[in-house]
Amino acid sequence: MQRSYKLQQTGNYQLPDLEDNEAELYFQSHTNIFFIISTIFQAGLAKLNPRQTCAIESAARSNPEWKVFVLFVSATEFSFFNSPNIVPLLPYPNVFLRRVNMTTFGLGSPVEEMFERGALNNSSFIVEHTSDVLRLLTVYKYGGTYLDTDVVVMKSLDELPLNYLVSEGDGFVANGIINLQASGVGHTLAESMLRDVAKNYSATEWAANGPFLVTRILRQYCNVTEPWHMTREQCGCQFGVLPPDQFFQVFYPHQSWYFEANRTREVMERMKGKVLTHLWNKLTNGIKLKKDADAAYIELARLYCPNALWSVKEYF
């Protein structure tokens, strides 16, 4: 198989360690996309759900010149039989499935001591908090764009400026989409965020190490309180917070519109010209959707993640 997936005696394929294959990364380049899968898997076998696969496939299709890294925290292997939603990604030469070694990944970084004492293992929200910290650490080490797995990417990320986050529209900056470069302002901001989480890490508050943290740092950096004032001009011209409608075209409490036939035309109209859209997984993951439904999400899947859609039997 391509991209260094070695067949094991178990019949599964090994996930290479990201740090053992760092030459794959475009060092200090903006053309890396990272997804982080921090779910804890039994027997170390990697799995994705169809919507996660859709996010990854859409990023790869829309950015063929970029490298898309899917980083698994607890998994070490995948298989064709037991990891069916991984299979649709394998035809894409720019998708790399990799394992993060939590023992070594934080070495030499501001969160080294935090990792050594196993702070993340004591979290009340271990999956979310692990992802919150790893996304910052990954862009700190390598530079590029972190994306949540509940997005659909519709156009090249090259259309966006370097070094950005996006406002959630509720007075906070979101941490679900992060572009920070491995040098200059991007690296400085990533380092500041990591130093903050190392000092103020909360194991009990869901958003403390995510939106609350990045908003706090950016208020200091941009010297303004409200995210909509964190423009590139205000923040020193090399970083800015994008307005919510760049990625959040459908706001709470209307997140179900992606799944409703009578809202399809309106939602698709809002997608025109946009680079990506965020689908509010925390609020929508329980909504069942047939693969042939007349819904905006299915229309987006047909256009931007066809392999993910075609691979499911009935529900997407």
From TrEMBL:
Q: Which family does it belong to?
A: Belongs to the glycosyltransferase 32 family.
Q: Which InterPro entries match?
A: A1-4-GlycosylTfrase_dom, Glycosyltransf_32, GlycoTrfase_DXD_sugar-bd_CS, Nucleotide-diphossugar_trans
- Where located? Golgi apparatus membrane
Quote one Gene Ontology molecular function term. hexosyltransferase activity
Among the entry's GO cellular component annotations, what is one?
Golgi membrane
> Which PANTHER family is this protein grouped with?
ALPHA1,4-GALACTOSYLTRANSFERASE 1-RELATED, LACTOSYLCERAMIDE 4-ALPHA-GALACTOSYLTRANSFERASE ALPHA- 1,4-GALACTOSYLTRANSFERASE
Please indicate which superkingdom the organism of origin belongs to. Answer: Eukaryota
- Recorded source organism is Culex pipiens pipiens (Northern house mosquito)
Asked if the keyword Transferase belongs to this entry, the reply reads yes
Q: Which SUPFAM superfamilies match?
A: Nucleotide-diphospho-sugar transferases
What range(s) does the Alpha 1,4-glycosyltransferase domain occupy?
A: 184-309
Among its keywords, does the record have Lyase?
no
Q: Which UniProt keywords apply?
A: Glycosyltransferase, Golgi apparatus, Membrane, Transferase
The primary location reported for this protein is Golgi
By what name is this protein known? Answer: Alpha 1,4-glycosyltransferase domain-containing protein
What is this entry's stated membrane topology? Single-pass type II membrane protein
